[in-house]
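ok so heres the complex, two chains, lmk if somethin looks off
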Amino acid sequence: MCGIVGLHLREPALHPRLGELLTGMLGQICERGPDSAGVAVYGDPRMSPPGRATTSLLPRGHSAESVVGAVTALLPAADVGVFEGGQTLVVNALTEPEVLRAAVRRAVPDAVVIGYGEDVAVLKGVGHPKVLADEIGLVHVQGWQGVAHTRMATESAVTPEGSHPFSVGPGQCLVHNGSFANHATIRRELRADGVEFDSENDTEVGARFVAHQLTHGADLEKALRLLCERFDGFYTLLVSTRDSFAVVRDAIACKPAIVAETPQWVAMASEYRALAHLPGVETARIFEPEPEQVYAWQR
Amino acid sequence: MAALSPAAVDPAELSAAADEVVTVDLAHSSVRELNAALHRRDAAERASTWIVTRPDGRHSIACGLDQELTVEVDGHAGYYCAGMNQRATVTVNGNVGVGVAENMMSGVVRVHGSASQSAGATAHGGLLVIDGDAAARCGISMKGVDIVVGGSVGHMSAFMGQAGRLVVCGNAGEALGDSIYEARLYVQGSVKSLGADCVEKELRAEHLSELAELLTLAGRDDDPAGFRRYGSARRLYSFSVDNAY
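and the predicted structre for the whole thing:
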């Protein structure tokens, strides 16, 4: 079991309420995954200041000051900043996302990069989801899109890098409820193609597979259709990029998913109770995604 | 109308008037308090109708009832709503999550919206009516329940169905009636595929008659003659050396 919630806000007037709404949703899925949690937030001006690249990392004991100092030494003109969110640091700078990520990796080689891009921050860790949400101040977050996950580990250890979301391509984010059966085989194939991995986690293989397809020209919908063909196991996935928000379930569809859609927002959750408090849910179109059908919304 | 507010949760506080309606607001009372009140031996004497407001997708609402009670849930319910029901009539004015009326023994459960997967799973008796759609595995391992779905059902519905009737006014998904024993299935629309050992069967007068009765009980006016009947080919469940792999 694991819990997923995601909210894609179409109505700009709701952007200041993203964190408040997402915190309420997360609070309803804690029982589904009490061992670790994580969020990805798109468009929060404190975590990812507009016009700047971001790199999110698990700092492995390095302080925020030392990380900023080491990255500044490599990018002296980039005005490096940092947001401290619980077990995660989100470094930002006036440069390109790939440049910042490479600089962070060189500056703190023993830290784990857990996300990068523009307008995106990924924060995750081990512990009770409510504690993590408090630590990162989720309730104050703003933006146009957010995803949260609560984990009940089955396939690999309870570690910060084994927590979701997995964000392995620019602005991409993937969360998973279920377990992939053939992840070791696919990891081996991707490694042979030169793809690097941070963990032994099955979901990371799904995220790397999607990123690999996107790099080779597929759009998100196509990448997820290819995932359905290649992966065995159980999955409900919520995958987001800076501009899109997509849901897919395996053919058996035993892992729950429910979508609610209004002109103001699209929301997805493992259980309806996580959607019950969203404004206007009374008139939302509510449905369960069909198996192996990719549902995608664009900004 | 009496309200089961936190202060009035103690069921002894409520007057025993048989025609009274009791409203339980789940924004103020817990599901545990609601179900405890519905399980009390004098629940039926205390109120003929129990109304549950603001369910907001909570799980296990009105589970394990065993009296001739009428319960109305105003809104969407979560998992296992009206599970293990005996004798009670539970109506949901909304959608329900996984496993509505699972293992029901008797009584009536009506859902005016749609149901998630495993509706009526393993149920032995009673009537489950779903006005909207039911997702995958509707009536899985059904053991005598009657299920009428106004819309469509998902894949693997009536999987290992042992007894009872499943009526689908819309379409059925893949592998309908896989490994079925003796449940009888009626579908008005299309069937994406039949599961192992499930076959179409002749719709005879006695089937038209039981189907008409079930549709009437469900409050529907579909023409029984427009349905097809499916059931077990009986090649799989009795021992045959050909089935030993």
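quick notes: Residues 202-215 of chain A form the longest helix (14 residues). thats all i got rn
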